Amino acid sequence: RNKRRMEFRAKETKWLYLGSGLPIFFQNIAKNHILRRLSIWSTGITDSDMKSLCPGLKLNKSLTHLDVSTNKFSDKGYKCLASAITEMSAARAAAKSGLLFQSLVCKENTTTSPESWMSSLLSVPSLTFLNLNKVCQVQTARFFAQALAECLPTTKLKTLMIQRNNLRDEGLVVMKALMDNKELTHIDLDWNFIGLGSPPEVNTDLAQDPVEHRREVAERKKLEKMYYENGVSHLLIELLTAKNYHTFNFQGNILSKREAEDLLLAKTQFPYNLHFTYEPYLEYRV
After folding, report:
1. Burial tier of 4 (Cβ tally within 10 Å: 0-12, 13-18, 19+)
2. Under a CB-based contact definition with an 8 Å cutoff, are residues 185 and 158 in contact?
3. Which residues touch 13 (CB under 8 Å, ≥6 apart)?
4. DSSP strand E in 83-183: where?
5. pTM of the entire structure?
6. What would the mean pLDDT of 148-165 be, rounded to a whole number?
């Protein structure tokens, strides 16, 4: 086999499902100098299992990609993993081994305190690809967005995937932080329901008093102007104009019809792939 392309996939290797299989493998990963890519997704890894993996991971000298998606570890596991990758990368840099740890996929492992590990992980200089799709719920979106925004200006990531994290209006914090980032070329913000959407309805049909009617119409126009000027399209166009992304995915977020028209018009100016959708039903969120 070509050692540089050798892969080890837990889904295809039955012995990893044995009760003693994972701990034994984790203990010996430090001695493995052939493995480049390790995929152990959906194998039920818990915080305790992550503690078994991380000591060996710190000493590993060959791994460049790790996929631990759809497991059962939480913030303790994330923190342990971030610390192990940081130490492993620092040791390799000091030894000048030439093999850099570059890619991490952690999607669908729920975090409630991302501030406890985000900074450590995103500060790894060799890490260029990070997938954190579907790792937080609505109630923790604010903490996730703030922790991520603090790290974005200095991270060396080239690709960041954060689909389906229910960021909603907290996503605007992330988008503003992207303005200060100089490294990212591929960004995936799909289905985070980012944006203000349509302004609240103002009752104009039932106003009998002409003065009251004019007041409500004026209020409606004021709200429309506020929502439009502070909506996501203006920030997105500003961001895309200032940067040189290869791909920017923004489907499933909240755009008014007017914003979608603005983006469609501006899209012709961008020399890269911009994906977005206008879904009218998204404007009427709960």
Report:
1. exposed
2. yes
3. none
4. 103-105, 129-131, 159-161
5. 0.84
6. 97
